[in-house]
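Please decode residue identities from the backbone states below.
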């Protein structure tokens, strides 16, 4: 698995676009997120449909065409240095095929930040644009606007990425050892849903795979993992980092499943690594080569996430 191109880091005064590729955003949370970004001396601009809502499917922030147009306009605006997703939910897959990937590539490398449903875009940006992306907090996420740790780790990654080359989570080894590879992953259910699509990686071989999810019963997590295992998608993976499992079954039950399904891979696995749907979520760059030390609970990047 090859390393990807690193976008430039942000500088004070940079213009950043806030988009909603999936679900709609409560206005008060959006305003709180914008206040945080302005406090970092960024100049945030809001895409037209961030507060929109689909007339028939209210879980979408406008039609697929509207959301795709917002995203494309933001990314292709030469004055915009980064595109920050306002929230997840559902809908990124529905709009991804409407994007003009040639135009996105021509717009040059920029920073993309998001997680959860944005996993579909992380995959597409890796395969279609060959670009490093940031699995990090949403601009209007409750766990971002009310949490200093999440804010500070994202801020450091954006402005001074060399200061966070070692990500120390406080996580514990589920299966001990060290491994090297390219960091990838995201929300487990989205990785399973992307299986076989041209926008998705063909597999995790040679990678350090990050997995997390929210609001799923254990049998559904079992189904997603089993689907990836049966498809051979996990063949050759070098190590696994497990994030949060918020609103899932009690963690002892989830932990037993993760041990049972991932143990036979014979690779280091670290649990409770502190990314995903949790307070104080860390920002994890996808597409960077790194070393996982499961015993120490650290991920050390070979180079800063951004250039």
């Amino acid at each position: 698995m090859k390393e990807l191109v690193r976008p430039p880091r942000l500088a004070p005064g940079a213009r950043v676009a806030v988009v909603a590729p999936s679900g709609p955003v409560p206005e008060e949370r959006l305003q709180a997120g914008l206040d945080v970004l302005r406090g970092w001396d960024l100049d945030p601009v809001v895409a037209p449909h961030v507060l929109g809502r689909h007339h028939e499917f209210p879980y979408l922030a406008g039609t697929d065409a509207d959301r795709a147009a917002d995203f494309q306009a933001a990314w292709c605006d030469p004055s915009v240095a980064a595109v920050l997703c306002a929230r997840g939910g559902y809908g990124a897959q529905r709009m991804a095929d409407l994007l003009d990937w040639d135009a996105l590539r021509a717009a040059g490398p920029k920073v993309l930040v998001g997680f959860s449903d944005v996993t579909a875009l992380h995959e597409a940006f890796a395969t279609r644009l060959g670009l490093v992306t940031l699995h990090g907090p949403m601009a209007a996420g409750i766990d971002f606007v009310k949490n200093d740790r999440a804010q500070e780790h994202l801020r450091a990654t954006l402005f001074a990425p060399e200061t966070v080359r070692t990500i120390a989570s406080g996580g514990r080894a589920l299966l001990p050892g060290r491994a090297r590879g390219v960091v990838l992953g995201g929300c487990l259910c989205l990785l399973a849903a992307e299986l076989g699509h041209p926008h998705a990686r063909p597999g995790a071989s040679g990678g350090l795979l990050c997995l997390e999810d929210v609001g799923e019963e254990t049998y559904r997590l079992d189904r997603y993992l089993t689907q990836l295992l049966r498809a051979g998608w996990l063949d050759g993976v070098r190590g696994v980092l497990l994030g949060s499992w918020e609103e899932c079954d009690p963690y002892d039950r989830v932990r037993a499943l993760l041990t049972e399904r991932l143990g036979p891979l014979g690779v280091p696995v670290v649990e409770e690594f502190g990314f995903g749907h949790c307070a104080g979520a860390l920002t994890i760059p996808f597409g960077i080569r790194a070393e996982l030390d499961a015993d120490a609970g650290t991920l050390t990047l070979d180079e800063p996430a951004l250039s």
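Observation: DSSP finds ten helices and 14 strands in the chain.
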